[in-house]
Amino acid sequence: MMQQHTTSLDIETPGSGLHEVTARIRDWTAKAGVQTGLLTIFCQHTSCSLLIQENAAPAARRDLETYFARIAPEDATRYEHDDEGPDDMPAHLRAALTQVQLSIPVMEGSLALGRWQGIYLFEHRRRPQARTLALHLLGK
Amino acid sequence: MMQQHTTSLDIETPGSGLHEVTARIRDWTAKAGVQTGLLTIFCQHTSCSLLIQENAAPAARRDLETYFARIAPEDATRYEHDDEGPDDMPAHLRAALTQVQLSIPVMEGSLALGRWQGIYLFEHRRRPQARTLALHLLGK
Amino acid sequence: MMQQHTTSLDIETPGSGLHEVTARIRDWTAKAGVQTGLLTIFCQHTSCSLLIQENAAPAARRDLETYFARIAPEDATRYEHDDEGPDDMPAHLRAALTQVQLSIPVMEGSLALGRWQGIYLFEHRRRPQARTLALHLLGK
């Protein structure tokens, strides 16, 4: 019989950059004991986001961070909105360019991630933040 | 017992920009009476898109609109495709950079949106358009 | 009664660019015989991605390819990561800017795609690649 599981995953980010959350999400999914299903990860914030990317080469992650800092730079002269500081508006832009939500099939009891795929919380604010991901798993 | 609900949401956009649809989507979801589930919003167009963003500061929305107009500008010299006018190809590009689909968990009878998150239809064409979002809700 | 269907779709890409997969995905979905449901497409790679875009004008697809080549260009001086060649890091960036996953409602036995929407595998590597999409369909 089809079942649903939900939880909130609290994540303390140490500052801007890609923070891997694959293991925590895989562990929670495994515990639910679902063989076939669909896992949805939903980021409840507008200044951090989700990204599935290369999990092997740290240089690839650094290039990703540098790239998003370049296409949506901190620059006080560009933005009207700066209530929370100069890193706030670029954070919203970098979040808009990436993902607020990811759904990953569960097959044979495991997330159907490719061999080189890791799940990352992409923190776009400079300072440490307390973040929450809502998880929803459906299956049997 | 798990149930499915579907509808088509018609939206008249007054021109380019971020148009909030949170209340309409929340109301439809609430009426379905689902306690735990997954709501999927699917945009049936290629020149407008979906975005979850900051719902408090109008300046943040203006900066988002300005940003996407800058990274995917109207510029006849850049694009081969202009069958529907100079705002058509940039519209496809801005749609490609944002979302055609969003899935949001339903927990305790409500969409699991963060406090500052609003759901927006991002119209990329200049003139008013008739748009349709397909909604699918699964849960119980 | 709610059912789940899963498969892996193997796709040989001939090189970089947008490769339409709508017919293959529509055919598999139709065979499952689901009237109402949710189809999820998950790309198991980090150097190609998914995009729903205009299916009528080839010029629009060429402009999309040109655009992503321009905003995330090949340029050895920009990137630290080049283990797999100069087209590798731009491929990760173009994948990060588009989609790793798409969920599409099924209504009245068909994918709820808009009239002008096609589903594309966006290959970002230059050489032919063997790619896999994980498909998950839920419904009845």
TrEMBL record, chains A, B, C:
Source organism, top-level taxon: Bacteria
First and last residue of the signal peptide: none
SUPFAM superfamilies registered for this protein in UniProt: YjbQ-like
Protein family: Belongs to the UPF0047 family.
Record-given protein name: Secondary thiamine-phosphate synthase enzyme
Originating organism: Pacificimonas flava
Organism lineage string: Bacteria, Pseudomonadati, Pseudomonadota, Alphaproteobacteria, Sphingomonadales
